[in-house]
Amino acid sequence: MPAKSFAYDPATRRARLDIHDPTFYRDPFAVYAELHRHGPAFYWEELGQWYVIGYDAVNGLLRDRRFGRQILHVATREELGMAEPKPHLADFDAVEAHSLLGLEPPAHTRLRTLVNRAFVSRQIEQLRPGIATLCHTLIDGFEADGKAELLKAYAEVIPVTIIARMLGIPVEMGDKLLEWSHAMVRMYVFNPPYEHEIAANRAAAEFAAYLKTVIAEKRVKPADDLMTHMVTTEKDGEKLSDDELVSTAVLLLNAGHEATVHQIGNAVNTILSHDVDPKALFADPRATALSVEECMRFAAPLHNFDRFALSDIDLGDGIVLKKGEQIGLMLAAANVDPAKFTDAATFRPDRDEAPHLSFGAGLHFCIGAPLARLELNIALPILFERLPGLKLAKTPEVRDSFHFHGMERVDLVW
Fold first, then answer.
1. Domains along the chain?
2. Distance (Å, rounded) from C-alpha 40 to C-alpha 34?
3. Among 17, 51, 53, 384, which residue has the fewest nearby CB atoms (within 10 Å)?
């Protein structure tokens, strides 16, 4: 059944839905299934904008250059009636100002070109032995206990350690990096509370100050790492500024672990909640790859991706956007579109159909996708191989967050 607060008017395609309704954020797919019965888009009353759920529509709009992740490069706040920045978020906004995720060409092109070479598949594949060793070492630390909380003991440690190594940041900073990241990521939800804003701003200030010390060290003592590469590489005679370096490093650290943590948790929960044999899921590299892709389709961590209309746009079918208005592209809903996937609501590890949209598409396709895929293709098989009697100790509690869909904790026993 759809969420208790859900109501839909087919005549106007308007939906009412409380984003904090536990029956929604615990199981948004029941709502998605109902919405798919009525078409590829709907207007969400509480959030005040159109949202797109159809696979083909979402895929197309992710690539549509009439939309962008920023708007102030083509219009002023006054023109758009946009509120002024909040003074208590000055440090957070400074870090976000040069984020790859929120830039458009030419700034996006320049930054992405400098970073992209570190994330191509041939470079990422070299990390395989180190990731596998890390996974085994972590399991060595809790295997004899017969129980563990998956996120803290395993899922959080892997991606933050690997990204820190890539950037050339001491892995001993892992706990602090996670603390800063968790505080900042709480901002990427609808209408965060004031206390979260204060915590995010403080974390951003501390994060930026620390990274500037790292940047200074790399200039004096270059090393074979991504931060040194970003500090020293030029494009068209220009180098990245300190502010650009900080924003890019923060994005790589935050996005580089946050989504992967939730994807590991969601995947393990999905596998253990369904009548499937882990040995079959990870029997060989092809089976593993298909299983991982199905986990990302069926239990995606990122559910929505907003874009701005860069001009007045008529999308047809009654969807008209003014310049500066946003449209929500619901990646997770598109992943379960019955018009695109056979038995879309069913977890089928051997599925080999259309690619999921969990990494996005187009200009802002996730730069870390090769790394995330490698980590999942290594971490999941090793976990189930090392702990063959793995079970859920109890049903995991889902976080109160529509944007990032994940578990509060995943308690395991074996």
1. 7-413 (1.10.630.10)
2. 11
3. 384
